[in-house]
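Late entry, written up from scratch paper. The run itself happened at the end of the previous shift, but nothing got recorded in the book at the time, so transcribing now.
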Amino acid sequence: MSSAVAHALPPSILALFAPRPPINFKPPIEKRKMLNYTTIAHLVDEFEDPKDTPPPTFPEAKEDKKARKLAEREAKHKEELEEAATSYDPSSDSKIKGDPYKTLFVSRISYETTEAKLKKEFEQFGPIKRVRLVFDTNTGKPRGYAFIEYEQERDMKTAYKQGDGKKIDGRRVLVDVERGRTVRNWRPRRLGGGLGSTR
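Output as recorded:
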């Protein structure tokens, strides 16, 4: 840079052209002594015999795991059904009372329907002695069916013939005679028996 140009530049610019201090000397990096690599031929005898090698194991696929769990649930459910069916004996149930030949079975009942409403609807066929709406023992919610015991057997038969399809609280109910104590080896739908279709 000429002196004329240097005099025309401000000090901040001239500082950019000032010589830098010399770089500190650094000794060269010493190379590490590398290991002498050898072959593995002398280790072949230490290898496992292929005959003793166990078969490879693979993680269970998502689809297989899902199918296995489904099969386990079905087997458990089947076992529970068989156990419940073996111990099923409505004649010894303390909750079941009255004459089975005077008792009407009513299903597909609305969950909002009460025992008082059922009694009112079926009293037109004759005097009613007892109404029992069945509830779930675990949740306390209605199961959708009930048993109605009449004073006279002829009134129950009349209700059986004329009450089927009766509309109560927006649902048409299905009626039948009580079969648990009147039909030999009868099983309810929850135990794999029953008649007709579900709700």
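The chain has a mean pLDDT of 83.
(Scratch paper discarded after transcription.)
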